[in-house]
Amino acid sequence: MSVFEQWRVSTSSGVCRGCQGELTEGGVFFSALLEAPAGFERVDFCPECWPEAERDGFFCFWRTRRAQPEGKPRVDTGLMMEFFDRLEGAESEEKRVFRYVLALYLMRRKKLSLLEVSRRADTEYLLLGRRPEGRRVEVANPGIDEEQIRSAAVRLEELFDAEL
Ligand SMILES: [Zn+2]
């Protein structure tokens, strides 16, 4: 099974993982990404259950607001930068794909600037500069095409319940 097929599995249920209560539209709640065997899984908690949540297994977490049906919020660029940093050095295909797709997104949002493209042992690497401080970071192209990039972006939007 490819990583892209695995991505059909889990999204936000709209239900609190702790009390099973429904998360109301427009209400504030907490979300986290767990590393499940099939890839990242998103879990949500209401504000009452959040303090009791077992945070050790969370890859990352954030405070959010349930999207109104008429439009998803824009994704938080700071949160995406944090997720990008957490994925540094990751081995799994899902994480390497996310890291590359996030690099493209963060370049578009002017949080990273492209300094150089290089190639070593059949792999393309992007050398990027962080803005504003300029610290350099390298990202490997996992060898995916346009369609796979789009599919990964859709998956990120599902996981974070927001538009890239
Ligand atoms: Zn709850």
Provide a descriptive summary of the structure in words:
The protein has 164 residues and is of the alpha+beta class. It has one domain. The protein is 27% helix and 28% strand. The protein contains four helices and six strands; from the N terminus they run H-E-E-E-H-H-E-E-E-H. The protein has helices spanning 3-6, 77-86, 93-108, 146-160, and strands spanning 28-36, 39-45, 58-65, 112-120, 123-130, 136-140. The strands form two sheets. A three-stranded antiparallel beta sheet has the order 2-1-3, with helices on one face. Strands 4-5-6 form a three-stranded antiparallel beta sheet, with helices on one face. A hairpin with a 5-residue loop joins strand 5 (123-130) and strand 6. Helix 2 packs antiparallel against helix 3 and helix 3 (93-108) crosses helix 4. The longest helix has 16 residues, at 93-108. The structure holds zinc ion. Zinc ion is lined by residues 16, 18-19, 21, 45-46, 48-49. The site of zinc ion has 8 residues, from loops.
Series of H and E elements:
HEEEHHEEEH
Radius of gyration: 17 Å
Task: State the oligomer.
Answer: single chain
CA-to-CA gap between the ends?
26 Å
Strand arrangement within the widest β-sheet reads 2-1-3
What proportion of the residues is helical, as a percent range? 25-40%
Estimate the mean pLDDT confidence.
86
Globular, elongated, flat, extended or rod-shaped: what is the shape?
elongated
Number of helices: 4
Based on secondary structure, the structural category is alpha+beta
Low-confidence stretches: 1-10
What is the total number of structural domains? 1
Beta strands, count: 6
